[in-house]
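Table S2 (text version). Query chain:
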Amino acid sequence: MVRRRVTTVAAIVLLGCLLATSMVSAAPQRGEIIHVVQRGETLTGIARRYGVDMWALARANGVTNPSRIYVGQRLVIRTTEVPAPSGAVHVVRAGENLNSIAWRYGVDVWSIARANGIVNLNRIYVGQRLTIPGRAPSSPPSQPSQSPATSYPGPWTGEYFDNVSLAGSPYTTRTDESIAFDWAYGPPAGGMPTNAFSVRWSGTFWFEEGTYRFYAKVDDGVRVYVDDVLQINGWRDGSFRQYYKDVWLCAGDHSVRVEYYDRIQVAKAYAWWKAISGPAVATPTPTSTAAPPSGVWYGEYFNNKELQGTPVYRSHDAAIGFDWGAGRPSREVWHDGWSARWVTRVSLKNDHYRFCAMSDDGVRIWVNNQLVVDEWHANNGVAYCGAFWSSGGTYPVKVEYYEDGGNALLYVWWEPH
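Corresponding structure-token output:
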């Protein structure tokens, strides 16, 4: 019995020593943590857990596609080299997206994505706390003031519903000469409720070729569609506020649809547009010195996979971050078998940069006429990157893309490395 007790005690002591030795051997170096990926974890969640930047974490571990890590993978967390981003904190509200948040604070949409470890620009959630880099917490910029409309287009076919979701048959349908209403605390039509109602206005209008700025100013929610493509999404409760979106249109008739709801208190709805530029200039070739202003992508879309012929649709985009799914960029563009080209100018520091694209399907990227990404083949959302050395200054960037079939998506970003 005594011998058995001595043996048991010795085993416990030995086990304790082994555990201590294991803990010592697993201790990370100063400023460095080793994290073993567990089932259900994401790179974004791991970065948030340790308070580090997701993009820097991916770069430190050679992760090309932030959406693809595996169970058991060992990630090095450099806490002293990768500080958590600082800046204003914005809490996402219903109806908001990254583009509208970036516009509100006057920062680049990809800067917000990188600071918060966001891979898909279309996937943020209500209540999410976003760090706005470069902005002091106490003073986010106010929305830029816009000129009031001097005239409102019309007439419109207005469908009025006695609910906030445009559900069922309209309570009444009528012709409205314009969308310029201040109902205050009254109903929009006789017999309708003074709150909790919605309206859908639709019309077809002639546009000359050019870029138009579409406006909506409402209390509460609004959506604006041009040719059945959602351009303004402010579908949320809120006080009187204004939205706008620039849309390039070819000459001809175009359908416009405005959807609105009022939840409580006062009800106001205004919608209009104005031309801000004439016909678009030709797309710069790789050897051309002409290019659009920095921070704006000029896009052209073709109904073939070879970027041939005359574009069927043009756009001006703040960022290349699209997940069309089984849809398409515009009604002029085919669902499958189309291609697009974007050009812009970007300001870079004196550093090595990595330009990346996540696409479905093919993608190519030129920086200063140098081909840095060449993945012109069917793809399924895999990210590819290429290196570019910058001596500092502003460089032309061109992105080419084609959609073969099925779903369509394209994200483009760059960062020092």
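Notes on Table S2: Residues 2-26 form the longest helix (25 residues). Helices lie at 2-26, 43-50, 54-60, 98-105, 109-116.
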